[in-house]
Amino acid sequence: MKNELIIRRLKFAQDYTQLLADENYQLVDMNMVEPFNIDDKRHHSSTIIFEKNEQLFSIRSDWTRSLLNYNENYTLDDRFFGYFGPVVRNYETFHQAGVELYSPSNEEVFSSIDMHLSFVTERYDEKFQSIVVNDDTLLDLYIEKYGLEDDIRTLVHEKNLSEIKKRLGGSHSLYTLLTAKVSDQIDLVNAEFGDSDIMRFIEELKQLLEKYDMKFILDLSFRSPQSYYNGFYFQAFLNHDYPLLSGGEYNSSAFGIAVNLSNGGLL
């Protein structure tokens, strides 16, 4: 690894954690070795597990799960946490930074997303090209409104348009939505479910982020690779193949944002 990359990463860690401290996030620095929790293996199949004195332990593969496990075992007074440090997946070490918000309001979620975007654009003079958002409850609304079979969900996630057309017909509202330009999906969903809580949330976020002049894309087939996310989810991209920022709702009342320092294009 080149010296310049190491120095940039360390500088990022200092600037980012100082930002979080200034914004009243509680910084955490947890041990990479932690008691094994079966949920960790279920959510992260690459988690490395070993035994010591008849006790199972794992090497941290994800900060969100580690903090969630810690928060469930101990009653914490703080609600906002920030971190920077390594995780190990598939025997490779990655450095990850991010925040976890417990029981946040919509305004607090918006503020945290805005904080991350402005930190990158102002501190690093980078421009975000696009942000992709979704919430699985939107697909639930379509399934409920049109009385669809639940396996339609899998077809949507797999982008199996031919089978969806075969099952629903080419004029069905859901098929029309999925075959439209992705940039037009938000208008089509608004036409049917604009009065739902999640679409009001997405529209408010869209208006907040207009100042960043990036594409705002709602994609109903978009899903997080982490199975514990169960609500709103987003990824924000620089001019790069992989997202720099990823985040969303999990555990019904928590929200996390992670910064991808490995291949997100920042360092």
UniProtKB/TrEMBL annotation:
Q: Where is the Class II Histidinyl-tRNA synthetase (HisRS)-like catalytic core domain?
A: 18-252
Q: Which UniProt keywords apply?
A: Glycosyltransferase, Transferase
The record's section on SUPFAM superfamilies has: Class II aaRS and biotin synthetases (SSF55681)
Alphabetized Gene3D superfamilies for the sequence = Bira Bifunctional Protein, Domain 2 (3.30.930.10)
GO molecular function term, any single one:
glycosyltransferase activity
How is this protein named in the record? ATP phosphoribosyltransferase regulatory subunit
Q: Which organism is it from?
A: Salinicoccus sesuvii
Lineage, opening ranks: Bacteria, Bacillati, Bacillota, Bacilli, Bacillales
